[in-house]
Write a structure and sequence with these properties.
It contains 14 helices and 14 strands. The protein is an alpha/beta fold and 373 residues long. It folds into three domains: 15-54, no CATH class; 55-204, no CATH class; 209-372, Rossmann fold. Helix 5 links the parallel strand 7 and strand 8. The structure holds 2-acetamido-2-deoxy-beta-D-glucopyranose (10 copies). One 2-acetamido-2-deoxy-beta-D-glucopyranose is lined by residues 46-47, 169. The chain crosses the membrane at residues 6-24. Pathway: Protein modification; protein glycosylation. Its EC number is 2.4.1.-.
């Protein structure tokens, strides 16, 4: 059999096998160990800001995937779970849509969000998460709230749509996907990608009950004694430092938020509300304890999952740097205070950063963003 026919018959098997996965014939598949491939060709839109990322092994100048070199996406076969209603149509015209997951929680939330939103805008594309250990970060944070199924499949020769920071360049492409399976690739760091499905996305990013319980117990435990029976406002503060404020990062345009920013932001809330409690979360609590001072401040020592829940369930929030901070701001129902100094124009971040892409339009109870210096 020549290579082309081999490929075709493999693909036919794949499509058949994929349908089986969805209708729940998982046991059979595990026994037969059939291969599931995700096949198409590779294109790219816009400029890649990740082209030099060594993890990104399968993007190259000719925009062709090297089949043997898909180290990130693995080479395995069986779909192990299908937590979605097993109703994938076998009609022609359906394609799969997946995203590669890179970075930590904040980046992964963007990658999940754009996958979710793009699938909603393109009904013939079925979203699918590639099973990989890295995704546990997302799954351990939101558990069963995430509705997109996971599968253990191989990506071969996929059409890659590359995310860039300026969402306007990308949005048109994401509304009209090429007629093939598609891999969303990169860092889609803008609310614009999912503005049309934000209510549903908030449901996807719901913390499991045990986490919410842990947060409300924590809130109770740090409530100032004299306010036990009084109404008061709780403001989360996220202070991102360490790896995002190294000398190298600063050269790229990441600005460490100065203590005065936090003082001014706290002042903003204290002037607005009678009683305000602040809860500080950070990757550098020692710095916070030296620099974020005043009355009614609690310093959280939880892990990042619980910290994200503490922040986003607060009444209002003061954010700092990085995608984790951004998401806490997006998830929080009240006012989100952000730092009003933009990255310098002559830096990497200054060039790719677009304030309009990052600051949501104020249009509901969530999106009131206020810039403070
Ligand atoms: C990749 O896609 C191209 C263009 O559709 C096709 O010619 C080629 O055979 C595909 N290769 C594989 C390995 O699927
Ligand atoms: C893409 O990169 C090229 C070269 O760096 C630049 O001239 C062009 O303006 C960029 N296009 C977009 C849409 O950013
Ligand atoms: C990307 O890699 C090329 C080739 O190694 C190098 O010349 C270039 O400076 C790199 N660009 C950045 C932004 O690191
Ligand atoms: C990209 O892949 C093509 C085809 O496999 C190869 O000829 C080319 O050298 C690769 N380019 C880079 C920059 O790796
Ligand atoms: C995979 O990568 C290795 C090392 O970069 C290279 O030698 C090999 O030719 C690549 N395989 C394919 C199929 O592109
Ligand atoms: C699954 O199907 C049942 C019965 O049709 C329906 O009630 C339920 O809402 C569906 N669940 C999802 C997640 O689509
Ligand atoms: C995918 O399946 C292979 C064997 O079929 C297994 O070795 C691997 O651990 C699975 N990966 C995940 C993430 O489940
Ligand atoms: C964070 O702590 C909670 C329990 O307090 C735990 O369930 C969760 O797995 C932890 N998350 C991480 C990333 O360690
Ligand atoms: C950022 O963009 C938002 C929304 O477009 C705008 O209201 C705000 O003034 C901008 N902030 C800065 C610091 O330019
Ligand atoms: C940076 O670039 C933006 C957009 O091109 C421009 O509006 C702004 O004035 C520039 N800022 C500085 C300090 O040059």
């Amino acid at each position: 059999m020549d290579g082309h026919r081999w490929l075709l018959s493999t693909l036919t098997l794949v499509i058949f096998v994929s349908i089986l996965f969805w209708i729940g014939e998982i046991d059979t598949l595990i026994k037969t160990g059939s291969k599931a491939l995700f096949s198409a060709h590779l294109l790219s839109f816009g400029n890649s800001s990740v082209g030099n990322n060594t993890e990104n092994v399968y993007l190259n100048a000719s925009r062709r995937v090297a089949v043997d070199n898909l180290t990130e996406v693995g080479t395995t076969s069986d779909v192990v779970t299908s937590d979605r209603n097993g109703s994938v149509s076998s009609e022609e015209g359906n394609y799969y849509l997946t995203a590669s997951f890179r970075g930590r929680l904040g980046n992964q939330m963007f990658q999940y969000a754009v996958l979710f939103a793009t699938a909603r805008a393109n009904h013939a594309w079925i979203p699918l998460l590639k099973k990989c250990r890295r995704l546990n970060v997302l799954k351990n944070t939101f558990g069963r709230s995430l509705s997109i199924s996971s599968a253990n499949f191989t990506i071969v020769n996929a059409t890659a749509v590359e995310g860039i920071v300026d969402a306007d360049v990308m949005l048109k492409e994401l509304r009209h996907l090429p007629k093939s399976n598609v891999l969303l690739e990169g860092y889609f760091e803008s609310h614009k990608y999912f503005a049309h499905v934000k209510d549903d996305l908030r449901k996807e990013f719901t913390f499991p009950r045990p986490f919410r319980d842990e947060v409300s117990n924590y809130y109770k435990s740090v409530t100032p004694i004299l306010w036990k029976d009084e109404p008061f406002v709780r403001v989360g503060i996220h202070v991102r430092r360490t790896t995002l404020i190294t000398e190298e990062r600063q050269k790229m345009g990441f600005i460490p938020r100065p203590p005065t920013y936090f003082t001014h932001a706290m002042e903003y809330f204290k002037q607005k509300y009678n009683r305000v409690q602040f809860i500080v979360t950070s990757d550098d609590l020692a710095w916070c304890k030296d620099n974020i001072l005043g009355e009614h401040i609690a310093y959280s020592t939880h892990n990042y999952t619980i910290d994200l829940a503490i922040l986003s369930l607060s009444d209002h929030i003061i954010i700092s740097l990085g995608t984790f901070s951004w998401w806490a701001g997006w998830l929080c129902k009240g006012t989100t205070v952000y730092y009003g100094v933009m990255p310098p124009n002559d830096t990497y971040l200054g060039k790719v950063y677009n304030n309009n892409s990052c600051v949501p339009v104020p249009d509901d109870e969530y999106n009131h963003w206020v810039s403070i210096i």
